[in-house]
Amino acid sequence: MNKTFISILEFFAVLSVMFMAISFLSHILMRKISLYNWFLAAQNKGRFLGNFFAAFTGAITPFCVCTTIPVFTGLLFAGISTHTAMSFLFASPLINISSVVLMFFLFGAKFSFYFIIMVLSFSILGGILVYYLKLDSEINPSFKEAPSSARNMNASLYKEAANSSLSLFRNLFLSLVTGAIIAGIIHNYVPVRMIEYFNKFPVFIVIPLVALIGFPLYLNILVLTPVCYSLLNKGANPAVIMTLMLSGAGISLPTAVVIAKILKKNLFIYYLVYTFLAYCIIGFVFNFLK
Description:
With 290 residues, the chain is mainly alpha-helical.
C-alpha cells in the first residue's frame, strides 16, 4: 500500500481518536470542576481578565493544536466571549507542563523563560485585539450554541459528553479528513531537516521563511522540543529554532482547515495573520536579545 496513503489513514485515525477523546473528557472535566463558570466569572469581573485566565489555563492543559479545538468550541458553546476563547486557542498548543520541564532541561532558563512569557503575552494580546477589532461575532452560527443533543438535562453527564463529542465530530468530519490528507502528504514530502541549511541566509529572511515552513507541519510541542534541540546542536540559530517551535506547534495547515469551519472569514484571516506576525516578532526580538 502506498506510503502516503498509509500516513493519511494513520493521521485520520489519530486525529479522530484524539479529537473525540479530548472532546468527551473536556466536556466532563469542565462540567465537574465548573471551569466554564470560572471563565465566565473571570470575564465578568473585568473586560480582559478572562483573557489572562484563558491564556494561563491554555498553558497548563496538555493539548496539541488540533485537540485544543474541542475545548475551544466548548467554551463558545458555554457562552464564553470569542475574544476570551481566542486567548485559550492561541496559548494551549504552545505550552504545557511537560514541555516546559523538557525545555528548561534542554535549552536552559533564558530561552525557556522568554518562550513562556512571550507566548502568554501574545495569547493575551491576540484575544484582546479580537475585541477591539470587533470580531467577537465572527463565529459560524452552528458553533454559537451547543447542539440540542448536548443540552439534554435529563441525560447523564457521560451521555451528554458522548452526544456532544459525536455531534462535534460529525460537524467537522470532512474538515478532519481534509486535514489528515494534507498532514499525510506533508509528512512524507516536507523535511524538517532543511532548517539546518538556513544559517547562510540573513535572519530577517530566515525567520519569516521558517514561520511559513512550520505552518504546514503538524507537530506536538513535546515532540518538537527535542527535534529543535537537535537542530540547535547542529548550529541552527536559536531565534530560528524558537520560531520553528512556535509555528510548528502553534498552528498547522490541517488544523487551519478545521478552524476555518468554526471561524468566519474575517476572524480566520486575523487568526492566520496574527499568528504569523507574532511568531516572526518573537523570533526577531529573541535574536536581538541573545
